[in-house]
């Protein structure tokens, strides 16, 4: 991440969890353009869509049997500019295994 990027948010989940992420329209006029996972083996985004009002929605499916972490980054850009956009939101998802009594 560059110094201009916002600080990442973090959440811990159990294996097999599905998280619905809703990104509200941006006040600065930039539009959500894409979402990426740094480790799709641990957290896989699916169903990315951007509504007409600029709200973006996606499901984050977490690994069912593995523990690990992934940074989910959402990109945004001005609607009239070419290119991919810049990181505007980062969510660190940590998949934590169930504890076992021994």
Question: What does this protein look like?
Answer:
Helix content is 0%, strand content 52%. The protein is mainly beta. The protein has a 4-stranded mixed beta sheet, with no helix packed on it. The chain has a 3-stranded antiparallel beta sheet with strand order 2-5-4, with no helix packed on it. The radius of gyration is 15 Å and the shape is elongated.
Helix content: under 10%
Regions with pLDDT < 50 over 5+ consecutive residues?
Answer: none
What is the CA-CA span between the terminal residues? 40 Å
Q: What is the typical, i.e. mean, pLDDT?
A: 87
How many helices? The count is 0
According to DSSP, the number of beta strands is 7
- Biggest sheet, in brief? 4 strands, mixed
H and E string:
EEEEEEE
Write down the Rg: 15 Å
Write out the strand line-up for the largest beta sheet, numbering strands in chain order.
1-7-6-3
Dominant shape: elongated
The SS-based structural class is mainly beta
Beta-strand content estimate = over 45%
Summarize the helices and strands and which ones pair or pack.
Layout: E1 9-13, E2 18-23, E3 31-37, E4 43-50, E5 56-62, E6 68-77, E7 86-95
Parallel strand pairs: 1-7
Antiparallel strand pairs: 2-5, 3-6, 4-5, 6-7
Short description:
The protein has no helices and seven strands.
Descriptive key words:
single chain; 102 residues; mainly beta; 4-stranded mixed beta sheet; 3-stranded antiparallel beta sheet; 7 strands
């Amino acid at each position: 991440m560059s110094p201009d990027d916002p600080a990442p948010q973090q959440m811990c989940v159990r294996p097999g969890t599905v998280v619905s992420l809703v990104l509200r329209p941006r006040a600065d006029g930039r539009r959500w353009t894409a979402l990426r996972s740094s480790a799709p083996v641990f957290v896989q985004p699916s169903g990315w869509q951007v509504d007409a009002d600029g709200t973006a929605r996606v499901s984050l499916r977490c690994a069912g049997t593995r523990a690990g972490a992934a940074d989910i980054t959402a990109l945004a850009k001005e609607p009239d500019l070419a290119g991919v956009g810049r990181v505007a939101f980062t969510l660190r998802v940590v998949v934590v295994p169930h504890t076992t009594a021994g």
